Request: fold
Amino acid sequence: MEIRTILVEPKLDENIGAVARVMKNFGFSDLYLVNPPDIGEKAMYVASHAYDVLRACEIAGSVEEAIENSVIVAGTTSKHGISTNKHLRMPFFSLQQLKEKVEGIRTGGILSILFGSEDTGLKNEVLMLCDIVVCIPTSPSYPVMNLSHAVAVVLYELSEVDGGMAAASGAIKLASVEAKERLFMHVKTFLDEIGYKEHKKEKTLLMLRRILGRAELTVREVQTLRGILRKAEWKVQMENFYKD
Amino acid sequence: MEIRTILVEPKLDENIGAVARVMKNFGFSDLYLVNPPDIGEKAMYVASHAYDVLRACEIAGSVEEAIENSVIVAGTTSKHGISTNKHLRMPFFSLQQLKEKVEGIRTGGILSILFGSEDTGLKNEVLMLCDIVVCIPTSPSYPVMNLSHAVAVVLYELSEVDGGMAAASGAIKLASVEAKERLFMHVKTFLDEIGYKEHKKEKTLLMLRRILGRAELTVREVQTLRGILRKAEWKVQMENFYKD
Reply:
């Protein structure tokens, strides 16, 4: 699905700039503004390298105009105390549920996400236009988020950008069970070679196994550790040689 | 685990204020600043109701001082092109992996999360002090996030605040299979009553079942729908009565 970010009557143009920036960070560009203030230098400055997103934004005179052609309209809120009687705020989705819903829809189309103004949030008449209402879970002691922070969190959750994570984790090969087993055998031999106390050996080996297990060793790290052991073994043997 | 947010040499005091705000939004309060600028009115204004977090922040002269007593030190980066050879940026965690790691540690203690300055991010000498490096997945066309946005996304992922979501979803009872079945039988009867064409009925009922199935009806909504049906049936019967 395409994701459209709609700011409904934002008050501060710097927030609009900040929203443009975080949209580009997460790979989005479809920005609509409903009755925004004048967008000045401050917004451009805050948008930074996302001035293209800011420049290409659409200005709408009403929410109805902004959500045109949308397949789903989602309103965002961080308000508490939703009751079953208030159909207005129902159905009530978490961000994960919204993400699952979006992933489940294979037909494509536009998902419009509405964010209210800094002071009032989305008004009831706007919430009435929404198919679903999404809540960002925040602390009761201070539930009201900064506008661009709210957008950041929602778009982070919906982003399909993986930031090269897949490539990076593909490049990093974890060591096989066999390679790790050979490392442990090497460690065991080494403990013998340095004359480690027999009655302590088993426990120590288990501990090392746990530590190295938790560390999720890569192929390269196992190689390096075995290199260190070989180097140490060689030193120990030389030592023994001179001692003898 | 306790989570400590550490800003390493932030440049703009308004970003510090924005970080304080989002920390409080997600239920955190432990803020450390390493060599920050003077914190002026702008920061207090942006922090808004999180002035308490801002006021209680600790100023440290070095990263070493700020991470003292931490059990895990995590550095954040949005940089790409991590290679296996760069041990500096290894092991390399996604935010979800960091969250799983934190949840897996039952012994408690402080998890320190480091965020670099607006222009350079975390420098290599700071990354060397980190146990793990966490990457926020961002678009290659604009990977560099605003400082407070990066904090927002990381703390959102690690937050245990549920914003009353559990209570709200507990209050909203989904309709049982039986209640929905009774609703469908009611609809079926109604179609008969309004003289819906026999050869279309089966398909239409299936379609209605799918639509209402997708809608995840609550107990209350099923009641309301049946109320509408009863009202309509009554009207239809009156109609038939006068017609006869």
